[in-house]
Amino acid sequence: MxxxxxxxxxxxxxxxxxxxxxxxxxxxxxxxALYDSPQRAMDIGNLVKSTRQYYTNQLNQQNQINARNLKFxxxxxxxxxxxxxxxxxxxxxxxxxxxxxxxxxxxxxxGAQLKAQDEASRAQMLGLVQSGMDATAATQxxxxxxxxxxxxxxxxxxxxxxxxxxxxxxxxYNTSMTADAVRRGMMNPxxxxxxxxxxxxxxxxxxxxxxxxxxxxGSYMSxxxxxxx
Length: 229
Known about the structure:
Number of helices: 7
Distance between the termini: 154 Å
Number of domains: 1
Largest sheet: none
Radius of gyration: 39 Å
Strand content: under 5%
Shape: rod-shaped
Order of helices and strands: HHHHHHH
């Protein structure tokens, strides 16, 4: 009789353990299916695509502005059609290609970060399943987690700007603007837009006449010197 009771208890325990392992296996399968689903792969792919497009749009805007500035800079400097223009145009192209690489790197980085978050969440859910959480609760919590992670990744991917990709050309444009200002007489010691007038007259005794300080020569000679010699 004692042996019969022990056998029954052992059988019940074995059945309970088998059921528990079956539940864990089922929940584990459902959790993995959630994270490995085609929809999740599509979510990550769309994140990469939208992030790349976001930064590429910024790059194209910068490229248009810098191409226009370069064109004007070459015209101001009288270098249109020369080797200098060819060199700077080549630099513009190199900077643009580098910008495309940067945009793609940031896009791939956003996708990789989301995948890493998914794997951390998966490990957490599997641990909870091993601790006794049922498949339904684990699946629901996992689904909510990956949706929240996607929304966070989408917001973070477009939170920053690409930065100045064409910094190598800024000096060319600024130099041409400075040179143009000098040629137009906008930069001189007196701050006048008419430097020749400032240098030749109008700053001494009334700004008229043709002698020293803008006064007639005779008037100048008669001031304090007339009649003494």
